[in-house]
Every structure is written in structure tokens, then in C-alpha cells.
UniProtKB/TrEMBL annotation:
InterPro entries documented for this protein: GT87
Chief location bin: membrane
Membrane-spanning segments: 31-51, 118-140, 146-163, 200-219, 226-244, 292-311, 318-334, 340-355, 362-380, 420-438
Protein name: Alpha-1,2-mannosyltransferase
Biological classification of the source: Bacteria, Bacillati, Actinomycetota, Actinomycetes, Kitasatosporales
Gene Ontology MF: a single term: hexosyltransferase activity
Subcellular location(s) per record: Cell membrane
Amino acid sequence: MTLMSAARRLVDAARISAAAPGPVARPVRRLTPAVLLLGLLVFGAALTEYARVVQAHPGRLWSPIDLHVYYWGGTTARHSHDVYDLDYHLGRLGLPFTYTPFALGVFKALSHLDEHSLQWLVACGSISALVASTWVAWGLAGYRRGLGRLGAALTVAGLALWTEPIQQNLSFGQVNVFLMLVVLVDFAQPHRWWSKGVGIGLAAGFKLVPAIFIVHLLVTGRLRAAAVATGTLVATVVGGFVLLPQEAHRYWIDGLFADSSRVGGINYVGNQSLQGVLARTLGLDARGVEPYWLAAVLLAAAIAIPLAARAYRRGEELLGIAATALLGLLASPISWSHHWVWIAVFLTAGGYLLHSRRAPWWAWLTALAVYLLWFAWPIVAHADRGPHAVRLPAGLLWTVPYDNNAENGWTGLQLVVGNLYPLLGVLLLASLGVLLWIQGRGAEPRAPEVTPRRPTSAG
């Protein structure tokens, strides 16, 4: 099957999904207020320990390189039109500004703050956004507002805080948690609201990968929201040309947006995407791996998009969003490990499935084992090994050899550990497929036992 015919089949599948019946009403679920105590304990302990470790190693865990690049880009844009042609120099390392002109405009405005204040604002804001994201995610799963839902949100946020993606995001001063929150809040809006889709469009205008959620809106038949999201995305592009015309021309017209080489080496261990897996496993460069990557992306899309649409039709909005987020992470040319902040949504989805289905003890243990694969363990990263090495929170993927193309020499268990997140992503997609298949074989979903009130925002 050629790539063209595969793409045509994918489009046909999307049309079928869009024409399918509307979603089943989602039951209104409750959590006992006693869960709040668990949430306060878990989140309080996680945040306290995180603050202690950061304070003990500020040079390694409180040195936001990416935030420095954002700040430098915004400051440079106030005085020059050459942001995309310059590099932020950190020693001998040159880091280019890779975000959209719309994002550059945001950072240009933020650059009026002093950098230290901005660092604190982003760090505290990211942790707050993490809690808010889990709160909204539990709402998307059908849980009513209350102390129990707050406890569940704090519990998941505390667990997520000690995963490698979240800690990397905080360490680098990244913006991924904010974008995740914007997308989740958008999905939580009632369908009748005209603004549904604006958040997704803004997130996609800031960083292109969230545009995958516009596809999800299309295949689930929410055409007005998809149109609003697309229009918002276009507005961010047009706004870039109005406010930063030379930078916008350089980014969009000259094709910088499609040049993934500016972001970093695709075979670097931190790139936890399908392209990264294939480049490391096959020992290929960006050009050589491209046909294999495109085929893998089409296959992943052919699986994930119908799964997400089916989940939505069965009233499982959160599961559909999680599947779409997984597709975006797998399909993107570069998905650094700190882009996998969607682990917070995956953890919420897992907690929802375990709680709502009264899962047996072995299912909880299995979920715990999967969670620990994302955990930020106190380890010595491979590049730091030496007589004066210090144990710092890091993911298992940093224990394998990396840098200087060492990734191309991985064998056996190293291939599993070094490609851990994409492998877990594929596993999660397969698990969702099995779950929906089992549900499909059973009785058709019934209306909820508790009649929900008029739809309201899950946020």
C-alpha cells in the first residue's frame, strides 16, 4: 500500500467517524470528600520534596535554559528583525528560537519583566497549571465539582510532579503545561458556546503540534468548534505578519516551520517520538528515516484517530483527548521528553478507569508499575557518571549511553529503555483499543443512572 492510498483510507475513516451517531451522555460521578485528605497529603509531600531537591541543586534543577531562549528571543525582537537567524549562546552551545511569530510576540511582551521574576512566574504558574489541568481532566471524565474532585486533582498532580516529563518541563522553564491546560479548558466548554475552539487555535498558533486536536474536533463531528479553532490559528498567523512581518515571512514563507533540524538532532535520546525511535533503531539521519517515519505516522493515525472518535461517541471525552495527545506526541518529528507533560492526563484517565470500573487489586498494581516507568528516579545520568557524580531526579531513559551518536549503537535492553515513552504510548493506545473493543462486544451503553443537569463546563 502506498503512502497516498494509506492517506486516502485515513480520510475515508475520518469521514465515517464524523458521520457516526452523537456521543452517549456521560454519567455524573462523585468522589467522596475524604479524597481531599489523600490529595493534600500526596501533593503536599510531592511539592515539599521537589522544593527541597531544587534548593539543594539549583545549578542543575533551577537553570531554565529554554526560558532563557524565550526571554532572549523576546528581548531581541524589540530591537531587531533577525531573531530566527541568530542563536542564543550558552558557552559553545548555540540555541535558535524555534517557536512561531505569534509566540515570539508573547515573549516580546513578557520580556519587559526582569528575567528572575519571569522565572518565578513560569515555575509557579506551571505547577498551578498542572493542578488546574488535572482538575479539568477529572471534569472531562464526568466527575462533578466538589472537594472529592479537588482531592483527586491534587493526588494526580502530586504523582505527575514526580514524573520525568514534568520535572524536565519545570527545569527547562518550558511552556507545555500551559498549552495543555488551554486545550483541556477548551474541550471542557459546552458545545453551544461560540468560543469553543479558540483555545485549541491559540495553542496551535503558539506551537504547531496542538493542531492535531483540530483533527479530533473534525472527526467527532464538532465542525463549528473545528472551524473556530482553524480560524483562530489563521488569525495568529495573520497577526504575526501584521506585528512582526519580517519574522513571519522568515518563519512561514521561507519554511522555517518545517525545518525540524533547527530544534535538535532527531536521534538524540531526548527525542521521544516515532521518528526518534526509527532514527536510533535504524541508524538513519533525518532524510533517510523520513519515508519510514511517514509510514509509521500514517499507521499511528489510522489507529489513534478512529479510537479517539469511538471513545468520544461512547461518552469518553477524556479518553479521546488522551488518544489524540498520544498521536501528536508520537507523530511529531521532535517530541522531547518534556513534551510528554500529557502524562498528567494519562494518569487522570487511568485513575478514572480504575475508580469507575472498581478495578481489582492487580489492575491497580499494573497501573502503578506503568507509572513508575515515567518516574523521576534519584539516579546518575549516563553523561554525568564520574567520581564526583551526584544523584538527581531523572527518568530511566537517561541511564543509557547518549550524545555523539551513541544512541545508534544501542542493543537489547538499551533500545527498550532509550525508546521508553513511544513504546509506552503505543502500549496505551493498544490498551485503549482493547478496552473499547471489550465495551463494544458488551451491551450498548445505557443512559446514565443519574440524569445530568444541563451541560456545564467541566472546568
